[in-house]
Amino acid sequence: MKRAVVLFSGGLDSTACLYWAKKNYDEVIMLVINYGSNEERVTNKVAEFFSKELNVPLKIVRLDFLEEFSKLCGTTLVGGETPKVTAEELEDFERAKETAKSVWVPARNVVLIAVAASLLDALGGGDIIVGFNAEEGATFPDNTPEFVEKMNEMLKYGTMAEVKVVAPLINLDKKGIAKLLKELGAKYEYSNSCYMPKGFTEDGKPIHCGECESCVRRHRGLIEGIGEDRTVYAVEPKI
Question: pTM here?
């Protein structure tokens, strides 16, 4: 039996991974890690929606130490105000590096993969599904093929059962991910990419700020990829 744990953060990438895993594995578990991020409440509700929508069990794990360490490094994702970004600035590599640094959570993907690996090791093995992609890999080193390779080398020594990281989106940009979401029939408008979400609509759709880097990347990817964006924004992103 093929088993997968999907590291779910609520955005387009992990939503695509969830639908993909549901199609390709016999057993799928959603794993959400809470560490005090600004969008945590929204992420949990989004996870609950997709858990019911796809009939996938959901586990939510809280890591208080990661919240504490995040505050030490000054990340804007935990109790801060994330920077506003224009579409033009997304193409400015130096500006992109600045915004990436402002939302960096210390060793987050290392920690999250370790938690997922522990769960799978306890269950007898399986794959950790992550939403790493080519677009974010340009500024986040822990979203790259090299990172996946190194983590899998570590897992050979760190788990008793066979556990490995699988990144189905690793060669895709947001446009490609949007196309995959459409192919999979995903209800992406119920996902949340925003660093500073404004709550929910009456029918349960997250309200995105429309001004943070993640919102702009989301909108651009959907428009360029499938020619539509059913996301609800407080401010329409300019692309």
Answer: 0.93
